[in-house]
User: What shape does this take?
Amino acid sequence: MKQYHILVVDDSAFMRRGISQLLEKDPSFHVVGIARNGSEAIEKVERLKPDLVTMDVEMPEMNGLEALKQIMRLCPVPIVMLSSHTGDGAKETIQALEHGAVDFFLKEKLLKNPADEKLVHEFQQRLKGILREKPPKAAPKRQIKVEKKVQRKQHPIELIFIGSSTGGPSALQTILPCFPTDFPIPIVVAQHMPPGFTKPLAERFDTLCQLTVREAQNGQELTAGNIYIFPSGYQTRFKKTEDGSNVFIVDDYLNEQALYKPSIDISLTSAAPIYSNRLLSIILTGMGNDGTRGCGLVKKHHGTVLVEGEKSCIVYGMPKAVVEAGYADGQYELDEIFPQIMSFV
Assistant: This one.
């Protein structure tokens, strides 16, 4: 059995012990070392060569964000941030994801007493999913290749839907700031995140993008010039009103249980019948298969589905599931996604 070496970084001895015990409940993980701040983390990453690092966000001397930047420059290794659910912690976590962190979890959720065994299992499985993948590399620049079966400009696109999970924020940062101020189509983003983190994500992207970026709200009409981030902790669906406008329905949606809130499947299932062949759906990096069922309905209504290629994915789970189901019209590395989107406009 493959055993992975983990470095645990946290300024709290209680947290270091709790995280270590949680990891070593699974024999696939061995805590090869601990560090109390960012400076120690950098030294131990270089010396111990761990397979993965769990990194606290807020620490004295050098915080997790600064340590992440230096580690990714000096000795790149997958880093998972462990965050507190606070305003500052959320903002720093978003920035960490932009700078190369592959995922994050809330410490108080992971270490609560009694333990949430389902969440602990998800944490362990997501770490394994990250560790099984090839180390992420920048996609090489190349001439854009167009898949023959993608039919362009046959129908005007009226909605661009982007779904992402593990590795999504950094992938989104490659795509969303590229849209020009006069872009004529609304863009929606379903990114898997714990409650409280999608608003800081939207605020952060609003400072980076030429379009306005905001968290979607119940009853809000979709209009061009905007990027809408679906709020975590809720499901976001689409509704056509009597006057012909399209609006969001943001609620708990108790009619259907879903592993993720937002669920890409639930959102796409409501969008596909409304937008039909005018819907362009893009599935980016992420673990699992959320989005596959929704993409199936997109294809049933003659919409278009593109997915991120394996080489640039942090985790090639969600795109792979769509490809294997036969729903992908084209598969492109991350640096090719935006040009492909623009070819439909």
User: Anything to note?
Assistant: The domain at 159-342 is CATH 3.40.50.180 (Rossmann fold).
